Amino acid sequence: MSSDTDITTDEQRAREQLVRLSERFYDQFAGGDVPSMEIPTRSKSNIVFDEDAGVWVLGDRHSTRSANSVGGAKKLLKSIYAVEFLANQLDEDRSSTLRELYYLSESWDNEYAQFNDQDESNQLIEDLEVVSGVTREDFHMRPEESGATLMGPLELREQTRRGDRVIHCQEDVGEGGYQIPNNPDTIDFLDHDADFILCVETGGMRDRLVENGFDTDYNTIVVHLKGQPARATRRITKRLHDELDLPVVVFTDGDPWSYRIYGSVAYGSIKSAHLSEYLATPAAKFVGIRPQDIREYDLPSDPLSDSDVNALESELEDPRFKSDFWTEQIELQLDIGKKSEQQALASRGLDFVTDEYLPTRLSEMGVI
């Protein structure tokens, strides 16, 4: 579990890494060397699937960002300005969003240090994560609010600027649930009566489960992924699994893009491969919607588009989906040519998902 000491240590380490990076630049200048920074290559060709760990990780290739070209010099200048900003932010115990950083650069006194767009500033923060081995959360950088929530029999203590507060994620929250903070490592898990964690892709299905009392009836912590899950959502899911020894199951729509949502929870994503050990939960299982369900329950469906077909064929070659289960299901989906949403289960009644579908599937999987 996290603690005040852990968080203070993380923040201290973040600042130390920033200072160390600045010192390397200073030493290069003082020695008459052309300033440079070595960065692990984050292209798709340098992302490898670690079969033992079951997650995407960075490979061994590195690239050098050097001031021996105008483009390289500008990137290093922006890095130096960003490092100074982050260090000052930590000193002042302030935080900012990725969007704010982009706009803040407009006030920097060197126009060449200003970002051209937010993608550039986002990528620079990711570069600093990779180089320093520190997460952006420890730099006090946060994305715009994701709005992801959880609901279930879990009591936790959250650290806030107004002091610690203890929250029970059923008794002390409304129907919307407990909103997951940007940095879940500010949370201590105090007590729980949960048997497993159910990660749900869509808000409509999450609301159906809560309204039907699924979290209460099955002692479930329902995590709303809100589509492709934010880092904070994946992080708290991993912590719940690792620290409370709770099984994790992922419930999504029945299409190739939703399977990738499951993949990001279980195995990590290519974009955040440098943080897979921090974010991914390889033990997570997929509960549905399966192509098999579309056929067996005769669910309302839509035809696969050309991009769907291409995505499914790509997933047949994706190491994250190299199992008998996924091969069988993806080939079946290509054969029937259909995709279906979670809410399609409502065609059998509003209670079908909580009274029949999920209990049957989770029982088959040995979760309940």
From TrEMBL:
Keywords attached to this entry: ATP-binding, DNA-binding, Isomerase, Magnesium, Metal-binding, Nucleotide-binding, Topoisomerase
GO function terms (MF aspect): ATP binding; DNA binding; DNA topoisomerase type II (double strand cut, ATP-hydrolyzing) activity; magnesium ion binding
Gene3D superfamilies, per database record: 3.40.1360.10, Winged helix-like DNA-binding domain superfamily/Winged helix DNA-binding domain (1.10.10.10)
Type II DNA topoisomerase VI subunit A all-beta domain ranges (all copies): 144-193
EC numbers for this chain: 5.6.2.2
Catalytic activity: ATP-dependent breakage, passage and rejoining of double-stranded DNA
Top enzyme class: isomerase
Catalytic residues of the enzyme: Y103
Pfam families: TOP6A-Spo11_Toprim (PF21180), Topo_VI_alpha (PF20768), TP6A_N (PF04406)
Cofactor: Mg(2+)
Record-linked InterPro entries: Spo11/TopoVI_A, Spo11/TopoVI_A_N, Spo11/TopoVI_A_sf, Topo_VI_alpha, TopoVI_A, TOPRIM_Topo6A/Spo11, WH-like_DNA-bd_sf
Positions contributing to Mg(2+) binding: E201, D253
Protein function: Relaxes both positive and negative superturns and exhibits a strong decatenase activity.
Family designation: Belongs to the TOP6A family.
Protein name (database record): Type 2 DNA topoisomerase 6 subunit A
UniProt organism field: Halosegnis marinus
